[in-house]
Structure formats: structure tokens, C-alpha cells
Amino acid sequence: MKYNTAMKRALGNLERQLFAYAQMRQLRTLRTRDLAGPLSISGKQERELLTRLAKAGMITKVRRGLYLVPPRLPLGGKWSPEETLVLDTLMDDRRGRYQICGQNAFNRYGFDEQIPTRIYAYNNRISGERTVGVVTLMLIKVATKRLGDTERVRTAEGLTTVYSSRVRTLVDAVYDWSRFNTLPRAFGWIRAELAAGRVGAAELVRVTLRYGDVGTIRRMGALLARASVATALLRKLERALEPSSSFIAWNPARPKRGTLDGRWGVVWNDHA
Is the pTM of this model over 0.85? Predict the structure, then answer.
């Protein structure tokens, strides 16, 4: 393994052995007890070595006892793992599944120009915010059955990550509106995508029925009815709804005052 002159002076013998071993084995992660045997060191020496390198920014701590290592050391010795590598490692460690969603998906599909500063991901293992190196993750734990309708994307670094599909992202913008602050903007996104032919009404109905809730079905039904989609598709949504005398706001950010739509149980409280 090649190092620049400054790095050679900074790295001790154990550090050089660690990187040589990781490169020879093509390892991207190291766990506690991975090095004690190969480097002939004690558990204490191993822990101190990993901690020292993590503090120096040469490797990245994912959690206690699990570290990401670079395929080669960059100039200057500092290294930050790519976002996909962090997310993949965290989920593999917990034997979980994920799909990138929310603001990241909105930006990917051109719905929102804002570039998010963190990665939003539905997953079936972890809830809450995690920071790994310089990468901040907002992990949204959901039931396994709510994962799906995805597409795999190749990153510039050669890794493969999983995104919610275009149509799933639109449905989630209605379903998870309070988390992502997407209503009523999402209604405009859906109209534009239908008009441009990038998504179809049948796809929206299918994904709404599988991953939406009652509120999602009502709002999507009202939207598609105004878009004059096929009656057969609207009936699929209607059959998923139980009779109810309650109404929900079309735009939940405004007072629930306006024209009542008895078919979908929606109050038209905003210009649609």
C-alpha cells in the first residue's frame, strides 16, 4: 500500500498493518476482534488502535465495535465514507431493509429543488437520527410490509442504493404529508406527472391501495376524480373505503371549511 511521506511519519507500525490487512482482504468494515489474531495484538490494543484511527478521521465508527475503513487512504489521511456505504453498512449490521424516501426522493425525481442535508430512509429496524462521520441519517422505522415499490440506483462510487420509486414517492408525499410537509404541494406534483405521462393513474391507484391509509385513499380518489380518470380505477379506491360520516381536509394546513365531497369524505378547503 502506498502512502505519501507525511502519512508514513504519522502512521505507526500497527496502523500500517491494519490498513495493509484491510486492503489485502478488500475489507470495507472492521469489527472488534477482527484484528487481534491477524495482527497478534491483545483485545485492549485492538480497541485502542481502532479508537485512535477513528478519532484521527482515518476510519469511521458506525457504532461501538463496528468501523468503516477506506479502500485506500486519501491524501492527508482524512476519509469520509459515501452516504450509501454508511446506510448499507448500518442496515446490513441489523439485517434490515431500507429505501431512501422523503426529501431525497423528491429531489431525485425533480419534484423539489431543495438539496437535503441528511438522508431520509424508511427501514424496518431503526428509528431516529444517526450521525456516522459526516453523514446524517433520518431513519424512519416502518413495518416490513410497508417497504417496497423501489428502484435500484448505481452511485458514482459504484455502489447500489435503493430509492422509493417515482410513483411510490408521490403516494408517500400524500400519506406522510405531516412528516415531509408536502401537502398541498404534492397534489400539484401528481397532476404534473400525470399530464406529462411519467406516471399513470393505474399505477397511482395500485400503490395507494398497497401503501396508503384511509386519508391517502380519500385524497387520491378526490384528486383522480377531478382529473377525470377511468371510472373503474376510481371504483377500486371506493371499494377500499368503509362508509363514514366524517370528513378530512383536502389541505390539512388550512381550517376544515369548504365544500363537502361526500363521495370521498373530503372538505374542499383550498383551490384544487
Answer: yes
